[in-house]
Fold each of these.
Amino acid sequence: MVEPKKNASGKAAASTAPTADASWTPTATAKAKATRFRWIAVALWALAIALEAVSIFWLLRQREFVGEDGTLVRNEDTGLLEQQNATAVFPQWAFITLIIALVVIAALAITGSMLWKKANRLDPARQSETVKFFVQNQLGAIISIIAFLPLIILIFTNKDMDGKQKGIAGAIGIVLALAATALGIDYNPASVEKYTADQSTVIQLLGQDEVVWVDGGSVYHVCENVSDIQTGSEKRTGTTAEAVEAGKQRLTLKFASELQKCGLNVPENASEIEAALKEIQGGATDVTLPAPVWANPSDAPIVIENAPAA
């Protein structure tokens, strides 16, 4: 384990070098992986919308005429000749192809959304940038609506499909659209602020940005001698950013018992820190993360001064 820098009193000292932004940042590997996931997601979404366009501009325009034994008449709307007793119907092959197209559009949209959400967990947006944060995290749902809504409307307004065809295709389209949209929504999106709160907690509790995790599970831990990671899997140690890169979404809220288990000092206000961190991890933006209060000032693993008032 890398030892944090210490000041003359033996305590770890926060860096005094001026920094423009001490917020959490992803590792280079995580950022590259997120970029790759996003490009693949965009390609899948583009295919979904392209298939929607093919369905609208070609498939839904297919028709067959039945009863073509009447006399020729001129259609005043189109100027074309038609059989007087002929009836235009939507072909069965086109109907089956339409159902398949709806399923494929859903598969493409959902797969793209899953990859996009993975990318957002590796390289999240800032919650303070409200519009960007919303669009980036809910883009999967937005794309799903775009990929389905026009097509569903045109299915129900198609003049050549009979009622049964409209009912079946429309119902399937609505169900798939709702499923794709629901799966595209990120109900608790990651953010730079959430990850920064976890990182700040770790540094103030341990004196450095170093945590432990194992393969499997979704959280990382403050030390390795805890029951949750005694799984037989290899224990991995790294920064909070490296833990996120490995697929861990947040710091465990059981950090107080873990500190005690590992023989480390536990702040007196651990429950307050836990409560605040839980709210922040849940998406709250108006919560202040308390500084640890130690029974003895010498218990503090790091000395961090409050920022000067603006």
Amino acid sequence: MYTDKAQLLSYFRTISSTKLAYIQRKTKDYRTQASLINNCIKNVKGQRILGMLDQAKIERWNNSDILEAVLMITYAADIVMLESRNDVWPYEYMAFARRIGELWEPFCKEAFKYPVKDLDLNNPPNFEEVREEIIESIKKYISFLNVESTIKRDLMYYYQIPWKMVDSGRVKLGLDLHFSQAGFHYNCDFKSGFSSNEKGNTNRLLMVATIYHFISHKEKMILFVRQAEKQNNHYLQTLKNSNYWEVYCADEAYTKIFEFTGFDLRKWLDMNAFWEQDISDEFRNHLSKNDLLKYLTW
């Protein structure tokens, strides 16, 4: 029931059709319609997963079986979300490419939520606490230097200047995923791709990685990218060549996720996700007419 793709697609489409008719009677604004139907399907998906988890607990499913069901429910719901949004607000290039990337990240993260291998999900450290810890360690180091007190004061003064600039930006150390495994802490970010001006985001990721580097040598930075490496611009190479980030693109990303979680997402997608066949005829015709089918890939 929870891994029957045809049944799940029919289930979500039936609910979407009923809810969308109601929404369209309530509002004529297509943006509002798109938002409401999207939230509706997300809520129904969440309820479906909760029902599955209740059954899994009673029947003592293992994480691999749970993940199989979660992925199929998610995939079916994602298809119907895309179809329903297109019904009220037809996709164009930028919106569709962005949306496919937005859906990819939570799909991949399910493998970490229900891992086959042992790992623990973590919360990111608090920047203020990290900052104070680093500053205190430097203060202690400077205090033991065999130099005059005026030089120590000057050293501390100049050391705190960049921290004041960093404070003005309120750096957040939270990324898309944080987990621990085999004594290491992994801090992960997911990106659909680097195909536009990513300077601001790239600089932020470099700053965050630098801070984690100061925390401990056991802090590892991982970047998962949906697009193949050759499809990305120079900002990806900046991160890859920084010595702070480990970058994995396309199939390499799935291989690394398999290494961490013990579940082969690439194999699951190859066996279950047939986008062009699974989407509705109407949606497929729209994507084909607007040359958007090429973006319908994970």
